[in-house]
Amino acid sequence: MTVPTQESERRARHAAERRGKHLGGESNENFGRGFAALGHLAVNGVQVSARATDLATGRVLFSVDDHVVMPTASIGKVLLLVEIAARLGDPEFDGYAILDRAVGDAVGDSGIWQHLQAPSLPVADLAALIGATSDSLATNVLIRAVGLEAVRARTESLGLKRTALLDLVRDHRGPDDAPQLSIGSANELTWLFASLARGEIVSPEVSQRVVGWLSLNSDMSMVASAFGLDPLAHRQADHGVLIVNKTGTDGGVRSEVGVLRGPRAGVTYAVSTYFADTRLSARLAVLDGMRQVGLDLLEYVH
């Protein structure tokens, strides 16, 4: 019989802590595939941050450097949607106001409004465009209407310290511009989406508005590619699976946060990657790694 030394006991405790931190303890078998895929990406130079929690209990199921602040591209637009949703409940704010797009708002990025003839749209319609297609023109018009300072103040009031919308959407970022559109930590992003799902962000009505807009999201290219849903119509449960998510895409950035519900459970998840997008194979490897996490999530809820 071998008597454990203090050093061996210390190593055993350290190993247990690492297992709990990265794989959520007893859920190791459920998330081994995703953890291995993200680990492979990290070995090959991809910066990775991820977290998944059980929606009902809050238990951490999966975690990889979830405290690290990462560039999250369009995910920060959710913070703008929270501010808009809160203002729609304010009688002093005209929720039916028609906003014009201006030359300074123009950006050749994601979204459909830039391809439409309508020069003006109501506030709520612009929010719906952001939820559905991450519409960057609509984003810039709404930021001009309410101001980035208001969005930042709202973000701080929610207690978010590592997550922020930093700037307008720009075709090119100069030395005087914020280096990223938005940043966030997987820890805070999963908290934000879990709180939205529970109706705890500002008020149940505000949370419901934001969730409604996000439920229109048509980007299923990352984690959600594993769920088998119609990217253009998934507001109702399909085979018992229901998702609300937001993605962020930029050069070298692929990020997604969402709430996934299934017949057995619900999860909140966030996965962010930052990589040298110099080869198509590198980008495809990142997307495949995110899909592997999605397969684990689907297995957990379904």
TrEMBL record:
Keyword Transcription: no
Sorted UniProt keywords: Hydrolase
Segments passing through the bilayer: none
Pfam assignment, any one: Beta-lactamase2
GO molecular function: hydrolase activity
Name by which UniProt lists this protein: Serine hydrolase
Compositionally skewed regions (Basic and acidic residues) per UniProt: 7-18
Domain Beta-lactamase class A catalytic: 52-273
Claim: Hydrolase is one of the keywords in the record: yes
Record region (Disordered): 1-28
